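Hello K.,

You asked for the raw outputs rather than the summary table, so here they are, unedited. I folded two proteins back to back in the same session to keep the settings identical. This is the first:
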Amino acid sequence: MFATSCSSDDNEGETIVPIQGKYNLSKQGVIVDGQEQLVDAPANQAGCPGDYLDLRLSNTAVIGDYQGSNCALTETTGTYVRSHNDLTLTIGNVSSTSDIMNLTNKELKLKDKTTGVITVYTR
């Protein structure tokens, strides 16, 4: 099976992989002079489990955020919509759309269309 694309930002991974699943926040960064500059996600609190994004079959998105000395978990629920290689998350009244840079059985890499920030999640 072959696929063609017109944009260098199109998914470089397997496009047949379903997007549903629980992803652990891994890295964040930006592109500088054409090169990705990724670091361990600063949102993950040291000593706590990593924050996560859970995309469910019902188009429900759950963001898990561990904070504080007791690693208290706060879950925020919203919705998501996937359209080709775009993923739009809506939490409360705030929506953000990202380009799906990579989607495989092990990784979801997103690039925010407004800020250019790259976020890497792993399964």
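The second followed immediately with the same parameters:
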Amino acid sequence: MSDTSPAHPEPVVLDIWCELQCPDCRSALDDVHALRDRYGDRLEIRLRHFPLEKHKHSFAAAQAAEEAVEQGQGWPYIEAVLARAEELDRRGEAVLVDTARELGLDAEEFDVALIDGRHILIVDADQAEGKAIGVTGTPTYVIGGERLDGGSSQDGLRERIEEIADRLLAGAGA
């Protein structure tokens, strides 16, 4: 017997196309925190990978983020790596493994995952989907089928995301 009661409507999905060596993505975390505080589990925030060629460690960072998700610490890891974007630029993949160790994750498994490439397909699929929908830079937000580009400016984006989320949630609850 399945429960089809509308007590728990599906959350609204916000995809954030991001790369972990991007200072604009780091500044977008304030908006992510505010959106989480406002909507809780009514808004599902998903990080989607869009590593940029100009950042040579961003592809490895995306793979490492997927390993963190597998180990149950996706967002804490993502935020920790974004906070160290300059260090990642200077020191490279060692920062990814060090960050995992500092968060109490299995750092050896991160090292192996970066060598064996087990998460490459996820990163490639995200990047291909991003390109297909017109993502050219990070962060780019997609909610309710609308794409909002945050790479040039974050100004007003959170308000716009809230307008769309409120409209979608009102429709879901009706």
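The chain has a mean pLDDT of 91.

Happy to rerun anything if the numbers look odd on your end.

Regards,
P.
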